[in-house]
Each structure stands twice: as C-alpha cells, then as structure tokens.
Amino acid sequence: MTVSANDPAPARDERDRVIIFDTTMRDGEQSPGASMSLEEKLELAKILEEMRVDVIEAGFPIASNGDFEAVRAVAEIVSESTVCGLARAGAADIERCAEAIRPAKRGRIHTFISTSPVHMKWKLQMEPETVLEMITKSVSLARNLCGDVEWSAEDATRTERDFLLRSVEAAIKAGATTINLPDTVGYTYPSEYADLFRDVIENVPGADKVIFSTHCHNDLGLAVANSIAGVQGGARQIECAINGIGERAGNAALEEIVMALKVRGDRLPFHTAVEPLHITRASRYVSAITGFPVQFNKAIVGKNAFAHESGIHQDGMLKNAETYEIMKPEDVGQGATNLVMGKHSGRHAFREKLKALGYELGQNALNEAFQRFKDLADKKKHVFDDDIVALVDDALASG
Ligand code: KIV
Ligand code: ZN
User: Fold this and answer.
1) What is the pLDDT of residues 203-212, one digit of tens each?
2) Which positions in this protein are listed as binding Mn(2+) (predicted)?
C-alpha cells in the first residue's frame, strides 16, 4: 500500500513505545572473531547509554571470568539503561548472573531454554515435561534474585505451538516480566512471526501483564523485517545489535530497526527512545573494535548509504534532496550527502563541484573541462578533487 505525504501520522501512544535491547556485547560478541576487551565494552556501554538504548545485554557471566567482570563493570558505570546478563536455566548460571548485575541501578536476568523438538531431543536430550519443570524452576529462582526477569524460548519459531503456549504460561506464572520468542536460526517469515506473537498474546493467560520481545537472526536476510513484523503482532521489545553482528549471519541491525521505525512513523505508530545522531559513531566504534568492516552499501551506516554517482540522481539531489534520500545523513551522524564524481556524473553536478572548489568557468571552458573529466572518469575508478583541480587548471592553461 502506498502512503501519501498527506496521510495523518498516527498518534503517539506509550503503548506503542518499543524497547530497544542491544545485544552487541553478548550475541554480537558470539560472532567468531568479534571478542571485545573489558575497556572496549565499557566504552561501548557509554555510547549505547548516550544513544538512550533501553537495555544493554553486556554478556554471559558464567561463560568466563572475563565475561563476568565485563558485565559487572558495565553494571557499575551505567545508570540510565538497564544492564542485563544471560544465563542458561541452571542455578549456577542464574546465581552468577545475579552477582554480575548486582551493582546495576537497573539490572535484568535473562534466562533461556530451548523449546523446539529438535533442540530438546538433540541438544538438551530432555523430555518436554522436564523442560517445563526447568522453566518454572529457573524463572522462579531468577525472580527471587532480581525483579526484572526475561525468559526466552530458544528456537521459538520451530517450536510446536501448543508446547510454546504452555512454556510461556509457565514462565509468566513463575514471574517472568519479559517473554522473548527468538527466531534463533533466522527461519521465520514476517507474516508468520507477526501471527506467532498474536497467537501467544491472545491465548496465554497473563500475557497482558508482560512485555513480549523479538530476537531475530539474519540467516535469510529477514531479521529486520521479522523484528518489525513481530512488533506489528504485539511485541514491544526488539533485540538487536550494532551493525547487525551476531551468531552466523548476525542479528537484526539496531540502526536499521531504529531508522525504519522513525522514517516510517507516518505508517506505523511505533517509536523508540534511541537518539539516532549517535548511530554512525556506534557503528564505527563496533567495526573498529571487532575488526568487522561495514559493507559499503550497508543501510544507514555504510559509506555509500548517502552517496550518489549517477548524473540523473545527482541532478535530482541538487534540486531537492528528497528526490533520492528518505532521511538526512546528518540525522544519523553520517556527515553530509556525498555527490561522488565518476563516469556517471552529469554536467550539473560537475559545475557544482567546480563551484565548491572555487572555480566559476565560462561555457566554453566548462565544456572543455567536463569533456576532460569524462575521459578521465572512464579510465579511473575514483576521481578525486585533486584530479578535478588538475584537469581544470590544465584546460584553462591550454584554452
Ligand atoms: O538466538 C537466540 O535464541 C538467543 C537466545 C539466547 C536469546 O540468542
Ligand atoms: Zn541469538
């Protein structure tokens, strides 16, 4: 369906506020090769807090002493965001997690267990009834140690529906305050994921008392679309990571989620508290500390996300930026629109570039310089400002 600029924007309602849960330091760090030092995690936590991320999942405290120390240190310095640690369903995990988040002004224990047939049979080697008992035990223990408890049904999207409903009911009864239905293997489709939330929210007693969360992996490239569909189905928390890092193909990218909700606020009533101005800084910092480059054409934060080379696009951009940009690069901390000079560039953009470089040429000199520029651009991948200065000086000298 197309949306007209004249359609009224839906009214803002607190019930439509989407909690942004950042898992860059936990699921993101589980990307092979992405480990971060304690100092790097602290710096990242400061950036995330400044961005007004609601929940920072700082690690998996039982995984190693380093992870425990990092979660604890993040809990000590963060005061606005909730600091969360991950724990499996066993007492040792949960108690270690509670200890790590203890210094936090707002702390959360996130405990999980698999509920899908394939995970229960092969990974856990447990009967479904035992899994149900473990949900009750683990969530009750976590709730005795912390007032804010998230429970996740790992592999929820491949779980039999009746068993998922029973599992969620057990977690809510035991005191979970957030219920996460992860698409652990990036398997679901947007419409299917939205229906999953609708079904669970409608059919589980007590569902109206908790927040539902999405957690989408990107194995089919659908993580962001699925997360937004989950919100349309009733979820009000999205778990995501800066630059979309995470297990295998990664998690839903925080920057894409935040901007998709913001830019399409005309269509969807959902909003977040995240301040987009810090997005590019966060992206560059995560790329620097993990050594994972950001692909040039990555939405929002890629080098080319606001770059235009073709003459037709550059001409449109020079007349009105809304012709080819749906958000402003400055709003996400990306600097300015970049009209890249290359073989597809047109005369209009070339003249503007010359102006910016301090040249006002007459028609003949401009034609001559433009021809030389096109010849050069055919041979060279990147035409830099210095190349343009050289060819214009040359054209002026010979003219
Ligand atoms: O992908 C997943 O299911 C997870 C859980 C631990 C939430 O990362
Ligand atoms: Zn995950």
Assistant:
1) 999 999 999 9
2) 27, 215, 217, 251
- For ligand 1, mutation pick of 150, 152, 180 (most atoms within 8 Å of CB): 152
Q: Which atom in ligand 1 lies closest to the alpha carbon of residue 152?
A: 7
Ligand 1 centroid – CA 300 distance (Å) = 25
Q: Judge if the beta carbon of residue 182 lies within 6 A of ligand 1.
A: yes
Q: Which atom of ligand 1 is nearest to the CA of 86?
A: 6
Question: 15: which DSSP letter?
Answer: G
Q: Which residue has the higher pLDDT, 394 or 161?
A: 161
Candidates 154, 217, 218, 248: which one to mutate for ligand 1, based on the most atoms within 8 Å of Cβ? 154
The predicted-structure confidence for 308-343, as pLDDT tens digits, reads as follows 999 999 999 999 999 999 999 999 999 889 999 999
Burial of 83 (0-12, 13-18, 19+ CB in 10 A): buried
User: With helix as H, strand as E and coil as C, how does 272-292 read?
Assistant: CCCCHHHHHHHHHHHHHHHCC
**Cα dihedral across residues 16, 22, 27, 28: positive or negative:** positive
For the chain, percent helix, then strand, then coil, each to nearest 5?
50, 15, 35
9-59 per-position pLDDT tens digit = 555 788 899 999 999 999 999 999 999 999 999 999 999 999 999 999 999
In DSSP terms, 183 is beta-bridged to 216
Helix or strand or coil: residue 388? helix
Ligand 1 neighbour 213 (Cβ under 6 A): no
Q: What pLDDT is recorded for position 11? A: 55
ipTM of this predicted complex? 0.99
CA–CA dist 301, 281 (Å, integer) = 9
Helical segments of 146-253, H only? 161-174, 190-203, 223-232
CA distances from 129 to 98, 115, 139, 156, 325 (A): 26, 11, 16, 16, 53
To the nearest 10 degrees (0 to 180), the angle between helices 223-232 and 254-263 is: 50
CB within 8 Å of 138: residues ≥ 6 apart: 87, 89, 90, 91, 94, 111, 113, 151, 174
